TrEMBL record:
Signal peptide: none annotated. It holds the Pfam family SurE. Residues 3-169 form the Survival protein SurE-like phosphatase/nucleotidase domain. It catalyses: a ribonucleoside 5'-phosphate + H2O = a ribonucleoside + phosphate. InterPro entries: SurE, SurE-like_Pase/nucleotidase, SurE-like_sf. It comes from the Bacteria. Its EC number is 3.1.3.5. Transmembrane segments: none annotated. Keywords: Hydrolase, Metal-binding. This is 5'-nucleotidase. The keyword Metal-binding applies.
Length: 226
């Protein structure tokens, strides 16, 4: 089956390379934003041209949003897409983040057209570096499980990897509900300029929700419906 790989950090981001490693020998096409699109949500481009750069037979850099990439992939690049994978995002996409995230929007767009998908993100603790090799290993294990599970039409998986510290135990996959608590909204003010300073790691977390599971060191898996 043909799997589309995309993201919102851009086609040259290390996270999508880790995703390529995780899918191993499965047939894939990379259709990802040419530039960084983090936090763009489900924005689509309708009032200007979207430039497509073909880098190889199975890799396309698209000057649009993640949702644009999925639209172009399924209508112009491949007519037989069976799955869409988005990520691995450099940062969590937990709970209400799903409304903001371009990573999640890519698989939501696919789900709108009846194509199942998985959004994969990696929570970042205190601006520490990512271990992309470990992320690829965990993602490969997750894909082995989730690609075999049936999804109702209009549904998709949202997966968040924890940021493990040296010596911490291997994480477990935990199926849970998305947290509905709001993100921190705080600004530093300099004259008429407002600088966002909300601290992601201090967000409220409903016990047992995806935020709680991921912050506690396990892999949070939620099923979201369009």
């Amino acid at each position: 089956m043909t799997i589309i790989l995309t993201n919102d950090d851009g086609i040259d981001a290390p996270g999508i390379q880790a995703l390529v490693k995780a899918v191993n020998d499965r047939k894939t096409i990379i259709a990802a934003p040419k530039h960084h699109q983090s936090g763009c949500g489900h924005q689509v481009t309708t009032t200007r041209p979207i430039h497509l750069q073909r880098r190889s037979d199975n890799e396309y850099a698209i000057a649009g949003t993640p949702a644009d990439c999925v639209r172009i992939a399924m209508t112009q690049i491949c007519q037989d897409i069976k799955f869409v994978l988005s990520g691995i995002n450099a940062g969590g996409n937990l709970g209400v983040d799903a409304y903001i995230s371009g990573t999640v929007a890519a698989v939501r767009e696919a789900a709108m057209h009846g194509i199942p998908g998985i959004a994969i993100s990696h929570y970042r603790k205190a601006k520490q570096n990512f271990d992309w090799d470990l992320a690829a290993k965990l993602t490969a294990e997750i894909l082995t499980d989730l690609l075999q599970r049936p999804l109702e039409p209009g549904s998709f998986w949202n997966v968040n990897l924890p940021h493990l510290q040296p010596g911490e135990p291997d994480p477990k996959m935990v199926f849970c509900q998305p947290c509905t608590k709001a993100l921190p909204v705080n600004y530093r003010i300099d004259g008429d300029d407002f600088y966002y300073v909300g601290e992601y790691g201090k967000r409220d977390r409903t016990p047992g929700s995806d935020v709680d599971v991921c912050f506690s060191g396990n892999i949070a898996v939620t099923q979201i419906r369009v």
